[in-house]
Amino acid sequence: MFFIRQLIKNGLGQIALIDVGSPIHGVGYIFVMLNAIIRRFSLNSFSGMTTEHSLFPVQMIVNWHSPDTYILPNRLRDWLLDPSSLTARLKYHCREFRVEVLGQKIIACDACEANEDIIVGEQVLVREVLLYCDDMPQVFARSLLPLSSLTGAQQQLAHLGTQSLGQVLFNHPDLIRKKIEVAAFDEASSVAKLANELSREKIQQPLWGRRSVFVLDAKPLMVAEVFLPGAVAYQK
């Protein structure tokens, strides 16, 4: 019994007194507690990065709107509203594509990012990355993956490393993408601060981004992407 008690103390931060002979706290209870321990260890590994960018989490504190709210250049609008894989489209425009992970950790969903699928306070794994084309940062992306969605086959989404989330998602034919919302990030935004650090110069124009909820096997997750200065999306 000491072994089981020690496991529960290490995994859940408390000691559960288990009486195998008790009708209430029997073998079934032990299995429940051990499953909780395994899940806690697994959740801890979701955010097990050894290094994080100094600005992580960058966040995206902004008001998102319907695309019809804005008058946008046709090329930029085409990139923002493209329902297909952004990773695949970026790869088409460069020789070398890569992902840099800025950081990932478990947080409570904030009101500014909550929606009908991911509620305020829900525990989510936030992941922030940069997408590079030929060593030029093109996109800053922030993903919210509810822990309730990271079960079964979808648990792999918590362990992508430098693999693109979009590349994995769009390999599933039953993937559902909900409406796309867009937003502009001004020079005072945290995204602009990241862009300034990457380019070593102050941005001269708003940065445009989009977000949408994806549903895979009835499990929602949200992805937001912002095109950085010099991105192919801005080129005429």
CATH architecture of the largest domain: 3-Layer(aba) Sandwich
How would you classify the helix and strand content by structural class?
A: alpha+beta
Portion of residues in helices?
A: 25-40%
- Uncertain segments of ≥5 residues (pLDDT<50)? 1-20, 29-34
Number of separate domains: 2
CATH topology of the largest domain: Chorismate lyase
SSE sequence, one letter per element: HHHHEEEHEEHEE
In CATH, what is the class of the largest domain?
A: Alpha Beta
Count all strands and give the number.
7
List keywords for this structure.
Chorismate lyase, disordered N terminus, alpha+beta, 6 helices
Q: In terms of topology, how is this protein built?
A:
Blueprint: H1 2-12, H2 27-46, H3 74-81, H4 86-92, E1 97-108, E2 123-133, E3 136-146, H5 165-169, E4 176-177, E5 181-185, H6 190-199, E6 207-216, E7 219-227
Antiparallel strand pairs: 1-2, 2-3, 3-7, 4-6, 5-6, 6-7
